[in-house]
Each structure stands twice: as structure tokens, then as C-alpha cells.
Design brief:
Order of helices and strands: EEEHEEEEH
Strand order of the largest sheet: 3-6-7-5-4
Largest sheet: 5 strands, mixed
Helix content: 10-25%
Shape: globular
Number of strands: 7
Length: 88
């Protein structure tokens, strides 16, 4: 409840985002090819993306205005979790 942990693959480091560093979040559509030149662990300016397929992601906006996208295949199931996280 106090942080979000991202672990992507066996050989990558884990990323921890504290609740205090989150400005906002939402589920959104994105285009992996146009925005990040593909899937995987990608960076584009102040945006980071962790995804393997699809076009739905959890977008986390940090207090520093950096954006982290985490791909999801079940956005309809993730939305209530996001709502709950933002309202607690």
C-alpha cells in the first residue's frame, strides 16, 4: 500500500515507486511503436515504459513530472485497483 514495485524480467533491476512520489495515475491507451519504438523496457524523454504487448497501460505520473507506463492486458480489472489506490 505504501509503494508500487516493478520487476521486469530476471536480469533487470527492480523499481520501487513510493506513494509519496506519485502525483496521479490512470489507465490509458498508448502506441508502443509511435511512443517508444517498440515493446520491452523503453525510454522516451521523461517517460519510461515496461510492457510486452498490447496497447493498454497504467500511467503513473510522478511529482517530478516523469511518467512511468506499465503495460496491462486487463485494464478493466486494474481500474478499480487504481481508483482504490488514489482514494486511500
Amino acid at each position: 500500500e505504501s509503494e508500487i514495485r516493478i520487476s521486469f524480467g530476471l536480469l533487470t533491476s527492480k523499481i520501487v515507486i513510493s506513494r509519496a512520489s506519485i502525483k496521479g495515475m490512470q489507465i490509458r491507451k498508448y502506441n508502443a511503436i509511435k511512443e517508444f519504438a517498440g515493446w520491452g523496457i523503453r525510454y522516451n524523454g521523461n517517460q519510461s515504459c515496461f510492457t510486452v504487448s498490447g496497447s493498454d497501460a497504467l500511467e503513473i505520473i510522478l511529482n517530478t513530472n516523469q511518467i512511468v507506463l506499465i503495460g496491462t492486458q486487463v485494464p478493466e480489472k486494474m481500474q478499480p485497483v487504481v481508483d482504490d489506490y488514489l482514494n486511500t
